[in-house]
Amino acid sequence: MPLVSMRQLLDEAATGGYGVGAFNVNNMEQIQGIMEAARDTASPVIVQASRGARAYAGDRFLYHLMVAAAEEYPEIPVALHQDHGNSPETCISAIELGFTSVMMDGSLLEDGKTVAGYDHNVAVTREVVDYAHARGVTVEGELGTLGGIEDGVGSGEVHLTDPDQAVEFVQRTGIDALAVAIGTSHGAYKFPRRPDGQILAMRLIEEIHRRLPTTHLVMHGSSSVPARLTERINAAGGRLRPAFGVPVEESQLGIRHGVRKVNVDTDGRLAITAAAREALAADPSDFDPRRFTRAGRDGMRDVVAERMRQFGQAGHAGDYAPRSLHAMRRAYDRQAAAGAAA
Ligand code: G3H
Ligand code: 13P
Ligand code: ZN
């Protein structure tokens, strides 16, 4: 099946009461690992690429790898999503390339570091919604900022999402999905201890979902950073500090309160690194790179399959027929016409 709009995946997830993992990719092995996991668990899935991923792989390589994935796994509904678009130009270039969903992250300025004002966020997000919806493409916006700085991305300042402002933001921008800031951050070092309600504001999700019951919520920075993976990396020569991520039960709590997209990058990176380090260490005389890239791909598959089961998307791949982007565009047009008439 062709690449599917993310909006359809999230609408179906809302109907079914489950969450959909959005897994970051940079190369062929990560894409194959995710698709294998999707097949093994019969899951719809979101594959997402950051600006860094697009720069690393190259736009045409990345896009055509995803077309190959859709062809090789025709039974899996899969959306291709731009993660953390820093400007309308980035989002528009993704849409022109063939992405079926984009995130306009207007919570930061174009440098990806400086916290942006609310009006800037509304203006750039609205601009992307107008462009994307006219092409049937989904838009995720973000209100509030995550903590931490990963690969130079992020402000390092946490600004939790304000529920009142969230309602206004959704109305003014027309986004399909809202990323909320609840105290998480990207990367392996999210919390100095296992997070509780003091540092992870799950109550905000409940509050925002109560006020915006039909808006799909998104949790960024949702890797759980399993100790078994960091321990394996360190046992095979790595040097990671003890780290705490978002416990999967917290993501599941979010899913019970309107979270439909759960972003996971770091857990995949850890799984690949653990498996590749072990494979390299197992036979120092071997120089066939396929040995460690295959091990990494299998590691990615296993952690992604585990998350798919935990988020509840497993078993739902065959629930629905994909709608074309053209059909999605007509639906947005009808929605706009109904809004204008009201
Ligand atoms: O946005 C955060 C994701 O983990 C992507 O990270 O910019 O290093 O590709 P990246
Ligand atoms: P993690 O670093 O927790 O995997 O978060 C990924 C993410 O939010 C990508 O946008
Ligand atoms: Zn993110």
Verbal overview:
The protein has 342 residues and is of the alpha/beta class. The protein contains 13 helices and eight strands. The chain has helices at 6-16, 28-41, 51-57, 59-72, 88-97, 118-133, 163-173, 202-211, 227-235, 248-256, 266-282, 289-311, 325-341, and strands at residues 20-24, 45-49, 78-85, 101-104, 138-143, 177-180, 216-219, 259-264. The protein has an eight-stranded parallel beta barrel with strand order 1-2-3-4-5-6-7-8, surrounded by nine helices. Strand 1 (20-24), helix 2 (28-41) and strand 2 form a beta-alpha-beta unit. The longest helix is centred in the last third of the chain and has 23 residues, at 289-311. It is globular. The two termini are 37 Å apart. Bound molecules: glyceraldehyde-3-phosphate, 1,3-dihydroxyacetonephosphate and zinc ion (ZN). The site of zinc ion (ZN) has 5 residues, from loops. Zinc ion (ZN) binds at residues 84, 186, 220-221, 263.
Quick gist of this model?
This protein is an alpha/beta fold and 342 residues long.
Named once each, the bound ligands are: glyceraldehyde-3-phosphate, 1,3-dihydroxyacetonephosphate, zinc ion
- Find the count of extended strands (DSSP E, 2+ residues): 8
Which segments are poorly predicted (pLDDT under 50) over 5 or more consecutive residues? none
N- and C-termini, Cα separation: 37 Å
